[in-house]
Amino acid sequence: MHTLDLLIRQALLPDGSLAQIAVKAGKIHQISPPEVNLGEAKAVLDLQGDLLCPGLVDGHIHLDKTFWGAAWHPHIPGDSVKQRVEIEKQLLKTVTVPVEQRAAHLLEQAIAHGTTQMRTHVDIHPEVGLRNLEGILHVRERYRDYIDIQIVAFPQSGLMSCPGTVALLDQALTAGADLVGGLDPAGIDNDIQGHLDAVFQLAENHGVNIDIHLHDPGELGIFELEQVIQRTEALGMQGHVAVSHAYCLGMVATELARATAEHLARANIAIMTTAPGRLAFPPIPLLCEAGITIFSGSDDVRNAWCPFSKADMLERASLIAYRSDFRTDADLSTAFKIVTAGGAGVIQGAIPSFTVGAAADFIVVAASSVPAAVATQPPRKYVIKNGRVTVCQGELAGSMALTRSA
Ligand SMILES: [Zn+2]
Predict the structure, then answer these.
(1) Domain ranges of the chain
(2) Alpha-carbon span 328 to 282, nearest angstrom
(3) What distance lies between CA 2 and its chain's CA centroid?
(4) Which of 36, 130, 269, 289 could disulfide-pair with 264, CB 3.0 to 4.6 Å?
């Protein structure tokens, strides 16, 4: 009688050891040296010394915004966040491919690149109502065997400055969104207190976590972070709040950034960074020193904000390292941790990878170590989700795969 669902043999683990991993009911059942007999399994995967890594985590993406699956849209520049929100609204009105289809195309890219957990923000405002949320809920259900998706109800058009949005966020959280989002309380709403009070009130009413986009610069952004910290501590929400971007931490004097980082760490607030191209971003070594959980995401993939990206989180780790001038193995491993354990901790508070009982979510690449994988971004030979091979040589298993051509 078969006792194991999957036996992964001859796997090179991130710690450099050669091992075999037994999987049962989607979880790691046993990890042992290659020579031990672990019994029979329904399926055997012999990696012949390839590197087995934890599944990648995309902790910040916008599935509903993408043009993937529709025609190529030339980028239209905008000078401010407000202006770009308006440009995006107009552009999306011209796209006839439904949100479900566009999101599925992007999602398949992410899955094929080894993302096994994801947090997506979904636009909620009076013009779209809950339409995008309904589409993404549908897509989440369809791909549930391939990826875990957490949904943030995101007020892209503002909260206090966009009447009706607070009520819509409330409905979205009842309809299936997992978290409440926020956006530049000063820059977009010009009402820091009103915006944050509304976001934290929604979180309290629904018992959900918070993830706030903060692009506001310099000392203004730092002031807003302190307001977020204050509310997080007052409501006992330590470990349940994340701030995305927080460019301000990379714009102010080091001493102020360090003091703010210590306050963020005390409130157990996680910071998401994409290591953006031309903008200042949070100094990762300083945040690590303070003990902050850092995670990352693809953010904008082929949408009105950005034409780039393939939703590949190994490529993202490489970008994080490149922008941070990381070169040592220790630093490259830090970049990898941001796209794996960092995101997993924020999304699910997961059991650390490669421990018995952890979800059997992995990627397999031809690399000699994790730093080598970050530096070279080899193709994903296999992706394994809950102990099932979901991607083989870049192709999704099963009959549901869309054509992933652009
Ligand atoms: Zn975003």
Answers:
(1) 4-54+353-394, 56-348
(2) 20
(3) 36
(4) 269
Confidence of residue 404 (pLDDT cuts 50, 70, 90): very low
Residues 6+ apart with CB under 8 A from 83: none
CA angle 15, 272, 364 (to 5 degrees): 35
Distance 388 CA to ligand 1 centre (A): 30
CB atoms within 10 A of CB 371: 22
The total number of residues written for the chain in this structure = 406
Asked if residue 59 lies in contact with residue 297, where contact means CB atoms within 8 angstroms, the answer is yes
Answer whether 0.85 is exceeded by the pTM.
yes
Q: Would you tell me which CATH number, out of the four given (3.40.630.30, 3.30.200.20, 3.20.20.140, 2.40.50.320), belongs to the domain 56-348?
A: 3.20.20.140
154 C-alpha vs ligand 1 centroid, how far in Å?
Answer: 9
Distances (CA, A) of 382 to 32, 52, 364, 365, 390: 21, 9, 5, 7, 8
Please report where in the chains the tokens 């000063």 appear, as a residue. 186
Ligand 1 centroid, distance to 274 Cα (angstroms): 9
Q: For residue 188, is pLDDT > 90?
A: yes
Distances (CA, A) of 389 to 58, 142, 339, 346, 396: 19, 17, 21, 25, 9
Q: Which residues contact 141 (CB under 8 A, 6 or more apart)?
A: none
Give pLDDT, residue 381: 97
Report the separation in Å between the CA atom of 301 and the middle of ligand 1, taken as the mean of its atom positions.
10
DSSP state of 80: S
Q: How far is the CA of 212 from the centre of ligand 1 (A)?
A: 9
